[in-house]
Amino acid sequence: MNKSLHVLIMYILVHLGFIFFMYPGDIISSSEEGHWIPILIGCIVHLLVIWTYMKGMSYFPDRNIIQIYSEAGRIASVVFLGPVALYSVMVSIITIRAYSEVISIVFLSNTPLWSMMFFMLLISTYVASKGGEAIFRTGILIAVLFLPVVVFIFFSSFQNVDWRYVFPMSTKDFSFFAKRSFYESFFAFAGGFLFLGFVQPLFKYKSKHVLICAVFFIPFFLFSVYVPLLTFGQATASTFHFPYIVTMDSVHLNWLMFDRLTMFFLLSLVTFILLFVGLVLWMTVSISKRFIPIFKSYQLAALVIVIYSVCLIIPEWEIVQNLFWWNSILRFYVLIAVPISILIFGLRSKGKGARERA
Amino acid sequence: MLKTITRMLIIPCMAGMLSGCWDNKDINHRSLPITMGVSMVGETYKVILLIPEPVERTTKVRIVYGIGKTITEAVDHISRDMESDIDMLHMKVVVFDKPSAEKGMTDSISGFMRARDISPKAVVVICDEDIDHFFKRTKQTMEPSGTTLYNYFEKNAGWSPEVALTRIWQVYRSIYSFTRDVAIPVVKSGNDTMMQHLGSAIIKNGRMVGQISSEETLLFNAFNGESAHGKIEVMQHSSVLIVSNTMSHESKVVNNQMYMTSRINLNVSILETSSHVTNDSIKKELDSTLTDRCNALLAKIQSSEADILGLGQFFRNKIPRAELKNWRTEYLPRLKMDFSVRTVIQNEGNLKTPRRK
């Protein structure tokens, strides 16, 4: 059954959840002018990666990547699935920790972090425990409820833009390749694509639809960076941790009865993130269940306890950012190795199939 | 059975969670100031808060003072001495007194942006008199409704186009931006009105460096697209109502010399005129008056090296970014600007105006 919609919605929710927080800050601090260049480089890499990944997956119409790697042998599973699982755990830790920090900065300044992280994880765990199908169905529900709010607020954030801040457009300065924050910005691209390999055979989707959706999503990447830039200018925007959130705060709508739009925006995005963490937990547990055949029903709980403990150990924002940076190695490994290996396995299996038929 | 019991136990826990409250203070234990006054005495800050308090059928306004090395400390002192907790959530207007504005507001403004307890949308005002006196007078005129000071700056209430409307985030932007400064309204307490508008302060990098008049502020607003709608332009023979205005700008750089041509397109309707004035002469007079004002404003901007009109924005694509850093000091004073005004008289009211004789 073709259920592209579920997959597309999930893709949109996950990426929307990512791009409005760390991503603008990373891009703005990576380059002084011509920010569209690092953004577009990121987007092109992203498109190439998901194309390769889905191309590879298309040779195995009824398998997910766990089955593909398992069939390819023990070594392949260890070399590829191991890092994927580790990366997923890291992503959950960083996301939970970072977003509870954001929530506490923006509105719950009295609430202790441990309780926020606890409840975030609790909800995500519950979602994850219900399995993949439930996650994708929840995605539709959340999209219906919150996507209109997010889109409305996204457009209202254009209120204070001064388009002349877009200049200077061109740049000869490519020093962002040497900047740490440029590589960190790939967080937004690398976090959300892996799930495309897990949804088969639960949901079948057309890879063309996902690609079209990804192309239409590029403006969101661009504007999440450019809205703060056009409102404040590079010199000011680079002083913010979360430029987009500050820009939201400066939007003044007389006719709206709510004073702080940011709250609605943030809460909607947090639901997306909760769903995303649920998805990642589910992916990790699917991997671990395949390779650790004992205590299958307790693995999720154990994993969550580990994640929660690590989140508690992290005392300050600095360490979150360092984790973010150390995770880059895994991030690029996952971003490059997984799609390419899947494509190679796919081509090989196709060759084998052709030979057998001949 | 066990499952049902667990569920029954979990559901009440959920109810506790759903309220989302943690260390929450009830609304009747909070004070919600709407105006804050900041004045610097030597190295210490003096903070004045205006807190409307509902009493039977009316609102009383309460003024409280605090002194501290930082604004937060001063507010903390007030909070400590008061019976309720101070919550800055509804802060709408922040008033600086003139000496502290001239000294620089960078630290205070950055503090507001950092801590987020004051909304970056709060309006910034400078008062040109003793801040204690200003607040005392304001208190008198504010009762019983308690919000008039804010209404003065609210676009759908008492705001008029001669008043600059600058918010905390805009002042913050001016601290760092290469090509953008702001103007902040300068007021003092009026005799029988709430306030007396004295013009606007030119703010450069968070510091007051000069002052412009109300008429010049109108131009400043027009430049920023806060349209001059509804403004009455008084001339020798007549007054007109500016219905709408648009501006078009062209910028060019020739031999390292910046030129800019700005055309102001006005749609006006005539309010008052003496019998012998023709439409043509009104147009001509508008042109000369506005051009003069623009030139005067430009001269002030250039001498204070603060780009409140954002003229540098028009050269962002012509001057490389490394050079743009010096826009205020290097380029702005040398800028040559050419203003022209094109007026369309949209309607003449009920009476006919004489045509060309």
Automatic annotation (TrEMBL), chain A:
Pfam families: Spore_permease. It is a multi-pass membrane protein. One of its GO terms (biological process) is spore germination. Signal peptide: none annotated. It comes from the Bacteria. GO terms for cellular component: membrane. The keyword Zinc-finger does not apply. Keywords: Germination, Membrane, Transmembrane, Transmembrane helix, Transport. The chain crosses the membrane at residues 7-23, 35-54, 75-96, 102-128, 140-161, 181-203, 210-229, 263-285, 297-317, 323-347. It is found in: Membrane. The keyword Protease does not apply. Belongs to the amino acid-polyamine-organocation (APC) superfamily. Spore germination protein (SGP) (TC 2.A.3.9) family. This is Uncharacterized protein.
